[in-house]
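Possible regression after last week's pipeline update?

I re-ran a chain I had predicted before the update to compare outputs. Posting the input and the new output here so someone can diff against the archived version. Not blocking, just want to make sure nothing changed silently.
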Amino acid sequence: MNLRTIPIFLAFFLMGLADAMGPMSTGVKDHYHLSNVMATLLPFFVFIAFALCSVPAGLLAGRIGKKNLLLLGLGLNTLAVLVASFPLAHYEILLGCIFLLGAGTTCLQVAGNPVMRDVSAAGNYSRNLSFAQGFKGLGSTVSTFLVSAVTAVAVLAEMKWRGIFPIFTALMALTFVAVGFVSVKETKADEPPSVASCLRLLNEPVFFLAVLGIFLYVGAEVSMGTFLRPALEGLGLEESSMALWYRQMLSHAPKQISEGLGESVSNVFGPTLFLFVLAIGRLLGGAVLTIMSPRTCFRLSALLGMVGAATFLAGSQLLALVGVIVAGLGFANIWPMLFSITVEERPDRANELSGLMCMAISGGAIVPLVMAWLMDKGLSQSLAFIVPAACFAYLFLLSLKGGKKAAIA
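New output (post-update):
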């Protein structure tokens, strides 16, 4: 790791902070007296920004540069969380801030993935991108617990659910300054990108299949996070040993902290173990890539993810718990592997490819709906895991397909 990569790692950490909108929705719902559907718009507005802004952000990166797009994203995020720190009379204004946060995070994602290549030493791109995804996962975990932890700080406790936004503002501003001092020698295209040139990339099978792979991967991950808890409860697993251990540990902490964090753990039972293994797997991925090629790691990850999701089909408690761990390790490094392998096919088109692949994050809205529809039609919760298993079967088949670059085969 060289010094130039540190601010980029910080930017990846901040990408994960947007995941706090889900846990925060309960406090927002009570404050504004919202229905469940209206409260759900809080994370939805972050999510929909990826679908609407990814391709335009990729095109903008080609014109103003990836570093400048990264700074733009950090600037938008700083503005969004700063405004949200103040009492807002109308929920619609808060939603506007959250959409702006989603747009800024989209810029971070679109610029961050390819700019990591520009600041990485030769041969270290896949490894650094895997580490960066680990930092993003860490940001997601930290932001989730911060929603409850801020109640332990007197000044922030008075702000209730808004107390997290001043912390976000400080982190965003700090990272903006740090990125501003980074020297980036960017890989540029021969001609400025356009919507047409971006969409033309989908005419090439290697890129179309990769974008579809990201669509299915994100959909599978969101499906796991959404349906793990009810599936495990349906198998008779009411509470994980990890949550029990964590609650016992918190019993020695001050009351405000233990109550807040203890509640957040119980609320995310099921996904907790999965997300924990995801974070560990992403950090381990960077080390694994020192001895394994990106394409081999991609194949192994896709296989583990497929097997892990498929274990639920047996309807066994033991296999399901093992499957959560295996799936977490398999899911962990799909994004950095597939992204870096694809970009290495055409480094000069990294901006357009990043936009297309970030737009494919919208798979997180579609694939879980398919899984939910199957359950509504009478398929058991365990058997419904055929959906993420099938997504990873596709990814495994995709991993067997060779690329143009011999260096990544």
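Follow-up from reviewer: compared with the archived run. Residues 136 and 205 are 29 Å apart (CA to CA). Marking as no regression found.
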